[in-house]
Specification:
By secondary structure, this protein is mainly beta. It contains 1 helix and 6 strands; from the N terminus they run βββββαβ.
């Protein structure tokens, strides 16, 4: 995935702070017509182009599904990491607080 909003950055339009790395999967279109977004959880460092890490490969463990919007988000973590639904919702609250969201798993 491509990291376009690294940990510590601010949203260009709304100004909120990203406490996690955030990006998208290039070439994969989401229902909203944009590329599929993803939260990277469990990585404490900012994945920035300055450190040569604007791309990230991890394991998708869940989807944050928005019941009132068509912009679902993948939840990507380092290999071997597990998070509870509550952990995922807590770490994504900075953005998901504005939506009616739930965690889906395979």
């Amino acid at each position: 995935m491509h990291i376009d909003r690294p940990l510590g950055s601010r949203h260009a339009r709304w100004g909120f702070y990203y406490p996690v790395n955030y990006g998208y999967v290039p070439g994969v279109t989401a229902p909203d017509g944009e590329e599929l977004d993803a939260y990277v959880l469990g990585v404490e460092d900012s994945l920035t182009a300055a450190c040569g890490l604007s791309a990230y490969v991890g394991r998708c463990i869940a989807i944050v599904h928005r019941l009132d919007d068509d912009d679902d988000k993948l939840v990507v973590v380092p290999d071997g990491m597990c998070l509870s639904d509550d952990d995922i919702l807590a770490q994504t609250h900075f953005q998901e607080q504005f939506f009616d969201s739930c965690v889906l798993r395979a």
